[in-house]
């Protein structure tokens, strides 16, 4: 399955209720599973973003649905990227003319 990296920021509502964040993480894992995806890694980070997620999903549409679902609760804003693992990168580069 394709790999995706999602950068997450808490909204004002999300940070005001940050103690509920672990329960929201569990709900997010369920949302990923419901779309045929899997949350592989979760990181609380310092800097421009609050959280980084590494996921695998069947396609871009599933990731978009998950992002819209999570965003609709008003606790976070997301930015997702398709990520290519090293073997995929090597395959892409080797196919260049």
Give short descriptive properties of this protein.
97 residues, alpha+beta, four-stranded antiparallel beta sheet, 4 strands, Alpha-Beta Plaits
Explain what the structure shows:
The structure is a single chain. This protein has 97 residues and is an alpha+beta fold. The chain has one domain (3-94): Alpha-Beta Plaits. It has four helices and four strands. It has helices spanning 12-16, 21-34, 60-72, 86-94, and strands at residues 3-10, 38-44, 51-56, 76-83. A four-stranded antiparallel β-sheet has the order 2-3-1-4. The protein starts with a strand and ends with a helix. The mean pLDDT is 96.
Radius of gyration: 15 Å
> Helical region count?
4
Strand order of the largest sheet: 2-3-1-4
Task: Name the helicity range.
Answer: 40-55%
* Low-confidence blocks of residues: none
Number of domains: 1
SSE order in H/E notation?
EHHEEHEH
Find the structural class using helix and strand composition.
alpha+beta
In CATH, the homologous superfamily goes by the name: Lrp/AsnC effector binding domain/regulation of amino acid metabolism (RAM) domain
Give the overall pLDDT as a whole number. 96
Cα distance spanning the termini: 26 Å
CATH architecture: 2-Layer Sandwich
Tell me the total number of β-strands: 4
Q: What is the compact description of this entry?
A:
The chain is an alpha+beta fold. The chain has 4 helices and 4 strands.
Write the layout of secondary structure elements.
Blueprint lengths: L2 E8 L1 H5 L4 H14 L3 E7 L6 E6 L3 H13 L3 E8 L2 H9 L3
Antiparallel strand pairs: 1-3, 1-4, 2-3
